[in-house]
Amino acid sequence: MSFIERGKGPWPANNQLHTVQRWIALRLGGKYEDREIQSVTRVLLDAVSRLDRGQRIVNDWQPNESALDTLARCCDRFKEGEPLQYILGESHFLGLTLSIDSRALIPRPETEELVRHLLGHQLSHEPQHVLDIGTGSGCMALGWKSQRPKDHVTGADVSINALELARENAIRLGYGDLDWIKCDVRAQAPFTEHNIPNGGWDVIMSNPPYIPVSEKETMEDRVVSHEPADALFVADNDPLCFYRAIAVGCMSGEWLHAAGWLGFECHRDHADDVASLLSTQPGWCKVQIMTDLQGSPRMVVAQKD
User: Fold this and answer.
1) How far is 185 from 158, CA to CA, in rounded Å?
2) Deepest in the core among 54, 84, 221, 266, taking most CB within 10 A?
3) Are 110 and 95 in contact (CB under 8 A)?
4) 3-state SS class at 184
5) If you ran DSSP here, which 8-state letter would residue 181 be given?
6) Alpha helix (H) ranges present in the chain?
7) Which residues of 180-191 are buried (b: 16+ CB within 10 A; e: fewer)?
8) pLDDT tens digits along 109-130
9) CA distances from 201 to 7, 36, 131, 191, 258 (A)
10) Residue-wise pLDDT tens for the chain (305 aa)?
11) 3-state class (DSSP) for residue 26
12) How wide is the angle at C-alpha 149 spanned by C-alphas 143 and 151, nearest 5°?
């Protein structure tokens, strides 16, 4: 039998909402800016109460002893450096609530932007074949399926653990008809044991590892110490290895259908290099660099001739 360690005091003077909010801020204080503390407090209260801020006020929600215990443990784990999404076990993507843990990267807003952009290029209402390379939690594959339920969606990843998480999310969300493939796209023919759709997939999207190992020292410990390194980092001497392998596979490997779309999430310092990789390779047109909400070049999309 296993036991969950209880939270530790000090405890709030009472369970009035404003008192509990101040108590959370004090537990988190000394290390974070006020804006981050306010954001974390809101997310924790949303998760524990299963109510939004307005609903908590209208319903005069007050946490019971169990809720206070959960909040205490969550605050302490966050202060020790664990990502908030892993603490809560969930993350949001294109309106879906996904289970998330250290088996896969936490979905980022720019990844959602990439999917939205590729969805905007889909003018046909006929079912399409879509491949998500480096699927991780399955966020892109499942997000796509939620928007185009008739499409045939496949998620691929080299990590068995990530694929297990993706399958769990698919089943829980009611998308059990997705296909999942274990493969390394840097291999010469990673899909030879599987059925490539006739003529190839219509859309291929990928958020591959793209951070050079040399940048690890400049990154937040919350990312480096908790998120899977094999989904984050590439060798300093070949940061485009995954982009090159996928681009070649789309052409010589015939993974991508004629007139199909390819979309990448990129390192902001290497988006130009990824775009150049495609624009200088025969067979690509409409190569575009897209910026994220902060104005940084973070996505590259292209269409196969």
Assistant:
1) 8
2) 266
3) no
4) coil
5) E
6) 17-28, 34-49, 53-58, 65-79, 84-88, 109-120, 139-147, 160-173, 221-224, 241-251, 271-279
7) bbebebeeeebb
8) 999 999 999 999 998 899 999 9
9) 50, 42, 7, 12, 9
10) 333 567 788 999 999 999 999 999 999 987 788 899 999 999 999 999 999 999 999 999 999 999 999 999 999 999 999 999 999 999 999 999 999 999 999 999 999 999 999 999 998 899 999 999 999 999 999 999 999 999 999 999 999 999 999 999 999 999 999 999 999 999 878 887 777 898 899 999 999 999 999 999 999 999 999 999 999 999 999 999 999 999 999 998 889 999 999 999 999 999 999 999 999 999 999 999 999 999 999 999 999 99
11) helix
12) 95
- Computed on alpha carbons and rounded to an integer, the radius of gyration of the chain in Å comes to 22
Q: Which residues contact 8 (CB under 8 A, 6 or more apart)?
A: 72, 76
Torsion over CA: 268, 245, 169, 116 (sign): positive
CATH of domain 90-304: 3.40.50.150
Contact 179, 154 (CB under 8 A): yes
Taking the C-alpha atoms of residue 9 and residue 22, their distance in angstroms, rounded to an integer, is 14
**Which helix (H) or strand (E) segment is 198 a member of?**
none
Partner residues linked to 205 by β-bridges: 132, 263
Yes or no: say if 222 and 87 are a contact pair by the CB < 8 Å rule.
Answer: no
- Phi (first) and psi of residue 290, to 5 degrees: -110, 145
pLDDT score at 4: 52
